[in-house]
Amino acid sequence: MQDVKAPISDSYHDYLIVSLKDPEEAAVYLEVALEEGSDQPQLLKKVISNILEAQSQLNYGYDSNQINREKFDKAVALINCIAIYNFVELVDILGFKISIQVKEPEIEGNKE
Fold first, then answer.
1. Which positions ≥6 away from 31 have C-beta within 8 Å?
2. CA dist., res. 40 & res. 45, Å (int)
3. Chain segment 49-68, per-residue pLDDT in tens
4. Are 20 and 29 within 8 A, CB to CB?
5. Residue 72 vs residues 16, 42, 46, 77, 79: alpha-carbon distances, Å
6. What is the DSSP letter of 69?
7. Alpha carbon 101 to chain centroid distance?
8. How many other CB atoms are there within 10 angstroms of residue 91's CB atom?
9. What is d(CA 106, CA 104) in angstroms, rounded to the nearest whole number?
10. What integer pLDDT is reported at residue 65 of this predicted model?
């Protein structure tokens, strides 16, 4: 029998991080986690961590001085995911939907 080697592929995590560099993809990813993740409360923390990992690889918006990883990790640890999912469920019961949108970049000349 011949020695068959399977092609090497990138991991799903690597693919996910690359796709989350697109702010629109990251927004949808977070929105879906809020809508669908209530049965796995820790999922929200992982989603936020993945988005931070992707954004930290970009050269805009998030630099090492702006976001200190230790501070971020501490803030994420304080997130009460169950309370967030309960709020999303309450909003749904009221007939509304939480929407995550990409924030428009601020233009330097328009600051008041």
1. 98, 99, 100
2. 10
3. 899 888 877 755 455 545 56
4. yes
5. 20, 16, 13, 9, 11
6. H
7. 12
8. 13
9. 6
10. 47
